[in-house]
Amino acid sequence: MKTFFLVIVLTSLGDDRVESIYFLQIALAVLLMTIIAHLLSMRFRMPILIFLLIEGIIAGPEVLNILDPMILGEGLSAIVALCVSVIVFEGGLHIDLHSIRSIQKSVLRLVIFGIVITFILATAASYYIAGLPLNIAALFGALVTATGPTVITPLVRNVNVPHKVSKILELEGVLNDAASVILAALIFELIVSPLSGLELVSFLIQRIGMGLILGLASGFLLRSILGKMLLTEQTVRFITFTMVIATFVIAESFANESGILAVAIFGIMVGSSKVPYKSALKEFKADLVLMMLSLIFLLLAALLRFDYIIQIGLVGVAVVMVLIFVARPISVFLSTRGTSFNRNEKLFVSFVGPRGVVPASIATYFAVKLNSMGMVGGDALVGLIFITIIITVLMTGSLANRVAKFLGVIPMEILVVGGGEVGQILAERFEKRGENVVVVDPSEENCQKLMKSDIRVVHGDAEDINVLKEAGIDHAKYVVATTDEDNTNLLICQIAKTKFNFDKDQIVARVNNIENLHAFWDLEIRAMSPAMTTALVLDNMVGRPHMFSMCEVEEGADIIEAHVSNPKVVGKAIRELNLPESSLLLMVRRGQDSFIANGSVVLEYDDIVTVIGEGDSAQKVADLFER
């Protein structure tokens, strides 16, 4: 079905001079290269875009001459527009504004500051370093303000980083892609037909207004259709796909370059709404997006001409370095001041700023227009854009995982079943220590409370495997069952063990009735009874108050376990370590043995150390051990 759709799109947009079999060959080549890129991505654990980029260059006219996108003529622009509209919509579809309210202000600041700072510095760098004419330099500066969901979305889904980090990157990519297109169109209009002050304001209002109005209207319309009509999943997918294309086409018809903003708003509206079939829609869109992403990356990479790269030379690399190591960090650190992002998370967001399809496609379009009008600089613009894409995509795609590990921003994925009082407190503690946590609960009231605390929630019955999959159980490291129903908790644990291959150390359960403890223990499920634990604690408080105070942790403190893996710590006695005064090592576990962490204990690789500390001191000690 997807292959047929691809062939129809290609053949319907072709040049009359080219036999239709050529388009079938293109479709087949794209499919084969996508499969190869996917296999290489899995083998080397690197984003698929890297391999698509390399394959497109090799298959293009500059190397093997198997794939020549220019033979598609005007159809190339239509194909790129179609693909980008679906990709941008799918990026917005995965953004739920209700669950990321704490970062919305940061995202808006990042989009605004990022566009202004990147535009100014990129324009200056390309003008002074690369020697581009000022108008072409400004056009380059406008195009590279977009990080782009076509690259960001698949990248952050391959790198396990905190939820707030991945979402700020995805939402930024969706929004600044649209903003970049509008800014670039404005600069281009100023180059080819200078606008007056009033015309300039009218241009911006028309593009932004059309994008917002049509995006919101499409979102409301789809929500109304899905909420009032009984439809099959297949019909829902077809209606949604048609509406995405319609939204883009109508927006572009009334105001050029407003289509991307319209489908971005449309996607965010649907992603933030409780509409039926959302999970099925996401799965369908994910498959379609992979196909379209592969198609446009291969086609645009094949457009690359080595002469453009040689013409720019090393000065182009210097311009890209300014973008990566100056413009991006400045905009990120300014935008996230006073937020919950720590320094390492800001550094990671600063590192992840690849440019993708939109700059390449629009730069190529602008270059053709400039050349046809006899204006110089079009080829240099394309060459510099492609240098930027190649360096940023290869650098980010190949190093993102390593950078995340080096900065220590890779959290655990924890699935909590039950959003009552216990589940909420537990989820908040996990979030506070930087883990990725998702809570599943059938109660609308509990879900609302959790969302107010910026906890990710999935509203549904956890006994349904599809609900667990939607919550991310496939990627979770731990499952914690905290409901007040022992039968439910036991069933969840059994599903995790039998269906998703969790081992006994990855499952934890709450047992409400002490008599049911053995049922969990018999299945090798780690379980605790609140009643029994409370009794034991109270027992220690009576007659042994000082012993109990050792284990008493106030709200501002924490107890953390850390694996010793830092070479600078291994082989040292605890007394030799410069630990914060507000922290204390309680215990060291080595293999099956556990002992008190006194000053003479020499730490060995893979020891498990239990740390207690006030504020963030326990986390600082854990970071020291695990670097």
TrEMBL record:
The chain crosses the membrane at residues 24-41, 48-64, 76-95, 107-130, 136-156, 168-192, 204-226, 289-306, 312-335, 347-368, 380-400. Its main location: membrane. The keyword Transmembrane applies. Keywords: Antiport, Cell membrane, Ion transport, Membrane, NAD, Potassium, Potassium transport, Transmembrane, Transmembrane helix, Transport. GO terms for biological process: proton transmembrane transport. It is a multi-pass membrane protein. Residues 545-627 form the RCK C-terminal domain. Residues 411-532 form the RCK N-terminal domain. The keyword NAD applies. It is found in: Cell membrane. It holds the Pfam family Na_H_Exchanger. GO terms for molecular function: antiporter activity; potassium ion transmembrane transporter activity. Coiled coil: none annotated. One of its GO terms (cellular component) is plasma membrane. Part of a potassium transport system. PANTHER family: NA(+)/H(+) ANTIPORTER 1, NA(+)_H(+) ANTIPORTER 2-RELATED. This is Sodium/proton antiporter (CPA1 family). The lineage of its organism: Archaea, Methanobacteriati, Methanobacteriota, Stenosarchaea group, Methanomicrobia.
